[in-house]
Design brief:
Order of helices and strands of chain A: HEEHEHHEHEHEHHHEHEH
Largest sheet of chain B: 2 strands, antiparallel
Number of helices of chain B: 2
Structural class of chain B: alpha+beta
Number of strands of chain B: 4
Number of strands of chain A: 8
CATH architecture of chain A: 3-Layer(aba) Sandwich
Oligomer: heterodimer
Radius of gyration of chain B: 12 Å
Bound molecules: thiamine diphosphate, iron/sulfur cluster, magnesium ion
Radius of gyration of chain A: 18 Å
Strand content of chain B: 15-25%
Strand content of chain A: 15-25%
Order of helices and strands of chain B: EHEEHE
Shape of chain A: globular
Structural class of chain A: alpha/beta
Chain lengths: 264, 70
Amino acid sequence: MRLDLLRSERLPNIWCPGCGNGIVLRALLEAIDQLQLDPDNVVLVSGIGCSSRAPAYTAFDNVHSLHGRAIPVATGIKLANPDLTVIVVTGDGDSSAIGGNHLIHAARRDVDITVVVFNNYNYGMTGGQASPLTPTSSITTTTPNGMLDRPFDLVKLAAGAGATYVARSGIYFAKHLVDHLKKAIAHDGFSLVDAVAQCPTYFGRFNRKGSAGQMVTSQKDWMVLKSVAEKKTPEELAGKVIIGEFVNIERHAPVSAAAPKEQA
Amino acid sequence: MPEKKTFRITHNRKWCKDCGICVAVCPKKVYEIDRSDRHAIVNPQNCIGCRMCVEHCPDFALTVEEAKNE
Ligand SMILES: Cc1ncc(C[n+]2csc(CCOP(=O)(O)OP(=O)(O)O)c2C)c(N)n1
Ligand code: SF4
Ligand code: SF4
Ligand code: SF4
Ligand SMILES: [Mg+2]
């Protein structure tokens, strides 16, 4: 990764020791670097949350917008200048709770932006409350006796809403994460990467996940590559999170003037 | 006979938060969190250049480069 893609004068970053956000940010910068994109043509847009602070550490033009509203801001930037590569940096809460409607409708409309979800299974910034991605039974500030509800499967949600590229990865699998970020960014159409990272301060501590180092290395125990998962039984996959590429299809054809003309 | 590759590790003290992730991911026990809870490079000669530590340091504090033997 090119260190000049970082705003070194703003480091060290504000995140807690061992926070996964820095690992996802590094992977994102690595992906942009490997794609050899002109940094002047890349724009990062974020909402609010610990993860949403990531763009401000980069050398790219960026907008730190409002909670849940990164996608509409990114859509506007893309419409104003379609030559830009527009990437949304968002958290599990930012993207699937307050911003959930923007997410599904941007996917439905197949807006050509890339959404990178820094998924730490809780609201880190405000003290570890449950998000719509918090796994059932997990302890959070708002679910002190364990989460009763089922979480969204963000991959299925995005796919069902019409996203044309959807992948999931985890920070332990750094090269896998970079590869899928590259494909998502290069994809023509709405793309989403669910990047699973750790919040050792809240989710990790409340759920006794051990040190930051253990939270990183344990991903290899509870995450399974899609290619491996396809050969396993549902019983064997209970409690596992599957990573890989789930959707990679052609962009929906634009419906502009064509149809009405034929009718005339 | 090809010479064993050696690697040069740099550690940015100012950015490191002593989180221990590099200790957990390094396959060669190159690092340690020492008795004063600080990151320490203890076995640099064992480094195989896999860059697991570099890819997983959340604070951009590590680089690993192949050392050119003159
Ligand atoms: C309109 C509005 N409502 C609520 C908040 C409080 N708030 C700030 S960040 C956040 C949740 C962030 O969670 P997530 O997106 O998962 O980011 P993380 O901090 O975990 O990276 C909330 C509810 C806010 N800033 N603005
Ligand atoms: S609260 Fe959690 S997500 Fe926020 S900086 Fe700390 S570890 Fe990271
Ligand atoms: S992973 Fe990085 S921040 Fe954490 S102890 Fe190692 S060098 Fe320091
Ligand atoms: S490059 Fe690999 S072997 Fe060398 S210090 Fe880093 S993790 Fe350890
Ligand atoms: Mg979160």
